[in-house]
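FAQ

Q: What does a record look like?
A: Structure on top, sequence underneath. For example:
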């Protein structure tokens, strides 16, 4: 069945009624202006955003893409950020993405922007990989809201963490590895469709959520998770290593920028959905509410936290243009339904020990597309959602965090006790990578240098997480204190660098479990978890268990794996006292169901 024609798709996106917007907690002004309204002038996103239309010479577009890739291909710990945006139409270009680069369409529907060529990520030379190439450090880049017709045999997307593909239609084969079996370490696709086969290859773990696969998903290493995916392979963990949920319990897709039929710039704010499968943009989809870009403050990296907070206090939404924002105080989101949208992987850096972002316990806040770097003065927390002991229900209009990435060390010798703390009930966590760096610029990495105890703490009840990547923190990676929590896909490496067993011992034994469910929790459920060890200090370090949780009927785990990658020592058990040791040499231990 064909999708509606592009003009009708754009009309559907624009005609959400004032009543429906009010029901969503959005102002009636979020609906489109009347057809007679004049198009808004082109927004000024600054020098690092490139906007193209079909009339732009292809040589100009390709020259920009090539120049950005050359600059960003090896710029892993650099400070430049870029976005390349395409208005509706057809383009014959080869877009290779380096670090901190977003390529996105500006249509109301992914098929409104047709890329004939590629939007791709390639592998990097890696002498430690048997193939001589890997994607292990292909982080911090994204493709969104467009269609790709590969003119080669496939569209290659060889990435690891923090490189989402959202709202993309691949009209052919999708290839997720760097080639020849080169290493690759987990990624994320949502609200997308692949017409051909998907070649997973060497990808260790992967989450595909609310999407459609028209062809076979081939291969898998440790755990491939599918949540609400039409055409997903059948449940098979551990052989084949597929964890398949027929529907996703509760979702809301990431906001996205688009240009409407009259040339006005808007930000779509998709609705909350429950028990879903497939994309939001298939035939028959409901109109997507949207906000005029004029309701947003377009921040620049030169804007102070005081200025940005003043705009938020006025009731404006926030669009962060590409760059690095050094903050002398936290950005504060106090109003319901505020949208904070990053363009081109902008970074927030709290320089004086405050948080980067604090969100009040209010309905409907959406935070999306932001990288948070710990600063030189230790922050107790980098992002805090809600306040301690808050109990307000947000079941019909939750707070959401999507493509929000944390980094302790790398470009700076940063410090933070905890990266993300979630107090608010019903919060949606959708693709988070919290990373205490294991490599970076000289002087920024070390056991006593880039210190961080815990990546994620969930105190709120009824929180749902999809794509929780938490790695290398010095104590528990994730602590779940709230009731009725759900995690769909969890990937975690333990810290590489404990100097001794004595320096890395928890209240419950040797090492610190990665995923900790508090003893008082009565109900919790998680699917598709992987915890890995690589202790590289030449010391025999042991972790008693990868996952630690109360043993009771209401606390359930499905399809968990622990892996010895390399180095010394290892993990003794997978969940509590269940599972086999993976110690001293490569090995895996799987637990299909617990308890």
């Amino acid at each position: 069945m064909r999708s509606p024609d592009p003009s009708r798709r754009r009309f559907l996106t624009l005609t959400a009624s004032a009543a429906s917007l009010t029901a969503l907690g959005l102002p009636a002004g979020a609906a489109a202006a009347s057809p007679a309204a004049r198009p808004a002038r082109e927004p000024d996103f600054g020098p690092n955003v490139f906007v193209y239309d079909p009339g732009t010479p292809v040589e100009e577009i390709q020259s920009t893409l090539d120049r950005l890739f050359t600059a960003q291909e090896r710029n892993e710990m650099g400070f430049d950020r870029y976005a390349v945006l395409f208005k509706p139409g057809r383009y014959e270009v080869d877009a290779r993405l380096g670090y901190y680069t977003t390529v996105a369409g500006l249509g109301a529907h992914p098929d409104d922007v047709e890329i004939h060529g590629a939007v791709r990520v390639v592998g990097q030379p890696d002498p430690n990989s048997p193939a001589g190439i890997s994607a292990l450090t292909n982080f911090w880049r994204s493709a969104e809201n467009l269609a790709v017709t590969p003119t080669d045999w496939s569209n290659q997307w060889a990435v690891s963490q923090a490189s989402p593909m959202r709202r993309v239609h691949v009209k052919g084969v999708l290839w997720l590895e760097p080639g020849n079996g080169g290493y690759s370490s987990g990624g994320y696709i949502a609200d997308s469709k692949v017409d051909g086969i998907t070649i997973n290859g060497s990808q260790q773990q992967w989450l595909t959520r609310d999407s459609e696969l028209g062809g076979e998903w081939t291969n898998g290493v440790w755990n491939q998770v599918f949540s609400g995916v039409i055409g997903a392979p059948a449940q098979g963990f551990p052989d084949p290593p597929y964890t398949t949920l027929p529907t996703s319990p509760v979702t809301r897709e990431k906001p996205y920028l688009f240009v409407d039929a009259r040339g006005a710039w808007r930000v779509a704010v998709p609705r909350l959905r429950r028990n879903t499968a497939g994309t939001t943009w298939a035939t028959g989809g409901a109109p997507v509410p949207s906000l005029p870009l004029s309701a947003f403050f377009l921040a620049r990296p030169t804007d102070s936290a005081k200025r940005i907070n003043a705009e938020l206090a006025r009731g404006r939404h926030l669009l962060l243009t590409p760059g690095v924002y050094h903050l002398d105080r936290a950005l504060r989101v106090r109003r319901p339904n505020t949208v904070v949208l990053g363009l081109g992987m902008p970074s927030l850096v709290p320089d004086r020990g405050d948080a980067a972002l604090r969100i009040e316990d209010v309905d409907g806040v959406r935070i999306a597309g932001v990288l948070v770097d710990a600063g030189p003065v230790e922050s107790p927390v980098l992002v805090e959602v809600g306040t301690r002991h808050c109990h307000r229900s947000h079941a019909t209009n939750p707070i959401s965090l999507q493509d929000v990435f944390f980094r302790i060390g790398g470009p700076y010798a940063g410090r933070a006790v905890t990266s993300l703390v979630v107090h608010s009930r019903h919060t949606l966590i959708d693709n988070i990578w919290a990373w205490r760096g294991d490599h970076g610029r000289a002087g920024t990495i070390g056991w006593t240098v880039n210190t961080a105890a815990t990546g994620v703490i969930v105190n709120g009840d009824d929180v749902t997480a999809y794509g929780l990547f938490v790695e290398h923190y010095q104590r528990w990676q994730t602590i779940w204190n709230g009731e009725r929590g759900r995690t769909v896909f969890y990937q975690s490496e333990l810290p590489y660098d404990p100097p001794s067993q004595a320096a890395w011992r928890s209240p419950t034994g040797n090492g610190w479990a990665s995923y900790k469910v508090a003893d008082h929790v009565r109900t919790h459920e998680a699917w598709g978890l992987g915890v890995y060890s690589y202790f590289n200090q030449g010391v025999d370090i042991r972790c008693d268990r990868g996952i630690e949780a109360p043993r009771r009927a209401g606390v359930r785990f499905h399809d968990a794996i622990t892996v010895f990658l390399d180095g010394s020592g290892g993990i003794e058990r997978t969940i509590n006292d269940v599972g086999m040791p993976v110690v001293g040499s490569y090995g895996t231990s799987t637990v299909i169901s617990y308890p």
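Q: Is there anything notable about this one?
A: Helices lie at 6-14, 18-23, 58-72, 305-313.
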